[in-house]
Structure formats: structure tokens, C-alpha cells
Amino acid sequence: xxxxxxxxxxxxxxxxxxxxxxxxxxxxxxxxxxxxxxxxxxxxxxxxxxxxxxxxxxxxxxxxxxxxxxxxxxxxxxxxxxxxxxxxxxxxxxxxxxxxxxxxxxxxxxxxxxxxxxxxxxxxxxxxxxxxxxxxxxxxxxxxxxxxxxxxxxxxxxxxxxxxxxxxxxxxxxxxxxxxxxxxxxxxxxxxxxxxxxxxxxxxxxxxxxxxxxxxxxxxxxxx
Length: 224
Ligand SMILES: *Cc1c(COP(=O)(O)O)cnc(C)c1O
Prior knowledge:
Helix content is 46%, strand content 16%. The protein has helices at 3-24, 43-51, 62-75, 92-98, 108-121, 144-156, 176-189, 202-207, 217-220; strands spanning 33-37, 56-59, 80-83, 101-105, 126-130, 162-166, 193-195, 212-215.
């Protein structure tokens, strides 16, 4: 099959599976948002998804997003762009200009820098706190034991609009316990949204309450 029609077909299949998983979990399709993860793919690869009417997309690097999305936004002004990868302090200004939602707030320094930049720019982005549910040294995210206090601090000290929690479970473990932990921490912290689930496990994540799933390769194919 030609590459582009395959992408559109994959998108339709993923949306169908999301709807089915939501209904099986006693929820509705509208409760779960699909973030189509476009990292490493270029405009030609992404167009079929935009042309199919999908507008919610995710990137993991500020520099890559900055090169790719401004031209696409001229064509599709209602694109909602999510940052799902680590954010460095020196990229905060560009990130606030480019993204609508940031999923990776994970330390006071970044929370403070985001607060200052959003005040300066006169905008409020939607934000998630990333939790390192597996306690992996190489992975970003706040420790689970510190997550609730950190959300409180983001709100009270920095005035941030934290709408939910995000996690990336360890690659080599069943994700269930990690999704359950994130849901429990969100309840304790008093946030409503859960960003969890990728190509291999988004249906499981929906079962555990995911409100957005971040799906790349199941739509666009294997990344180079
Ligand atoms: C790349 C990426 C995804 C999507 O991964 P797939 O397995 O291709 O669906 C989701 N979340 C984050 C944080 C990513 O970096």
C-alpha cells in the first residue's frame, strides 16, 4: 500500500481501538485524546494525519518542533502541539512560544523558569508533571514519593496550571503497576488528567484511566 494511505488507515485503526478500549473501561471515546507523536517524521509523512482532520500532535525535542511546525501551522492554524520530551532551561522561551501543552515539568528549576516566561509572554500553557514511576536513573521525571508535594508547589509557589501527570514506564516491564501508580498519585495530588500509554500499551493505559495517549509508531511506522 502507498505510504500515505497507510498512515491514514493506521490513524483510523488507532482511533477505533481507543474508542473500543474506552467503552470497555466504562468510559467514552471523548474521554481519551490521541496525541499523534510525529518525532523524526517530516511534513510529508505527517500531512495524511492532518488531512484526515487530526490536529493534536506531539514532539519530544524543541529544536525539531521549531523547524517543522511553524510552516504546517500556516496551513492548519488549529494544530495543538504537545512537548512530550525533556525540557532544558535554555529552551523554555522557545518552548512557550511553540507548544500548547508541556508534559515534562519535573523539577523546581523548570517550573520556575516556565512561570517566569509565561508571565513575560502573557500566556498560560497547559502543563503536566512527569513522574519517574520506575525510578530509572536515565529517565526524566520527579520521584513518585515527591510527586504530590511537587504538584502542590508548582501551583502554590509558581502559580502553574498543572492539569495532570505523565509517565513513561520502564521499557522492559509490564506497564500496569506504573499506570496504576500514576492514577493513584494524580488522585492524591488532585489533578484530573493522565498522560500515559504509547503504541505498545495505549489500550492498557486507557483501562487504567489514561486521558491522553501518545502514539507514534503505530501510526507513522517504525522510526529510523
Ligand atoms: C516517542 C514517544 C512516544 C511514542 O512512542 P511509540 O512507541 O512510537 O508510540 C510516546 N511518548 C514519548 C514521551 C515519546 O518520546
